[in-house]
Specification:
Layout: H1 3-7, H2 11-35, H3 41-50, H4 53-59, H5 61-65, H6 69-94, H7 98-105, H8 108-120, H9 126-144, H10 153-174, H11 183-201, H12 209-215, H13 218-245, H14 248-255, H15 258-269, H16 276-295
Helix pairs in contact: 2-13, 2-15, 3-11, 3-12, 3-13, 4-11, 6-10, 6-11, 7-9, 7-10, 8-10, 8-14, 9-16, 10-13, 11-13
């Protein structure tokens, strides 16, 4: 489907792909735990990203040949930021609880409108801030069920990932070097340079990607393909399209439902049993996201 036809749809219809991304990203927490070990994080990330590059590159080959050196450099910069997001988030999740990781990473949806407003020298509306606050409160109740502990090194790493996510969203929207670059080509360049980050780090971070791949059985390969095709290729293509055709604040708010979907998969597949506060938090996330989606600043062009 052409990007132009997607852009012509009503806002509610254009938000559906982003909600689908939130769902698959929510499921990725459980999938990653069943694929990666603490000493194989970098190798799994390299495999996850590397697997989609040949297919995506084949589809984008004509667009890639048309890119200028400046556009390649812009895509490479975004790819390095993307690599940092995943390294911080994945290592942080390994060294902290799922509760704290889900709460801290959701702060992206608060950081983004504040950063966007600072860049524009304006202020988000009170209604939007209230909606974001309700969503954050909901995430706190949902993931923590009313209880939090003091920050650990893992919590701080995930906090760094939330900041890096904000940088990634705003840089994608504002970086002049990549304006006009077809989303398919830009997605490939980003993923390629992120993969280079993981490949460069792998000699110092545990087993090589090849050794990890050789150790996988059919079940782990299936889960890895799920991470590659849906949680990576589909998700980042949709996010790239969304931040270039709408408000980065609304994108971050919709993706902020990720912890809600993580809890849904945890209950359905991992046997988690949320308490009353967690259920109240789920309702607050849904209400805050819908309210914020309607009240998000309408910055159509950065």
């Amino acid at each position: 489907m052409a990007v132009a036809s997607l852009d012509a749809r009503p806002r509610a219809a254009r938000d559906l792909p982003l909600l689908a991304v939130a769902v698959v990203w929510g499921s990725s927490f459980l999938v990653v735990k069943r694929v990666a070990e603490p000493d194989t994080v970098v190798a799994v990330l390299a495999l996850r990203f590397g697997l989609v590059l040949p297919v995506l590159g084949l589809a984008a080959r004509r667009q890639l040949r048309a890119l200028t050196a400046r556009q390649w450099a812009g895509g490479a910069l975004l790819g390095l930021v993307l690599g940092a997001v995943f390294l911080l988030e994945t290592y942080g999740a390994v060294h902290t609880s799922a509760t704290n990781a889900g709460l801290v990473i959701s702060l992206t949806m608060v950081f983004t409108p504040f950063a966007e407003a600072a860049l524009r020298r304006s202020a988000p509306s009170g209604a939007f801030l209230a909606a974001a606050g309700l969503s954050v409160l909901g995430v706190a109740l949902l993931t923590g069920d009313g209880g939090l502990r003091a920050p650990s090194a893992g919590d701080l790493l995930v906090l760094g990932a939330a900041v890096a996510r904000t940088v990634n969203v705003l840089a994608t929207a504002r970086l002049r070097a990549v304006r006009g670059v077809p989303p398919l080509a830009l997605t490939w360049v980003q993923l390629a340079f992120a993969t280079l980050v993981f490949a460069a780090a792998s000699p110092w971070a545990g087993p090589s990607p090849w050794a990890v791949a050789a150790s996988f059985d059919g079940r782990r390969w299936g889960l890895l393909l799920y991470l590659s095709l849906l949680c990576t290729l589909f998700a980042f293509f949709v996010q790239l399209w969304a931040v270039r055709t709408g408000s980065p604040s609304r994108v971050s708010l919709l993706l902020g439902t990720e912890p809600l979907w993580a809890a849904v998969f945890g209950v359905a597949l991992a046997g988690d049993r949320p308490g009353p506060l967690a259920l109240l938090g789920a309702l607050a996330v849904l209400a805050g996201t819908e309210w914020g989606r309607r009240r998000a600043p309408s910055f159509e062009s950065l």
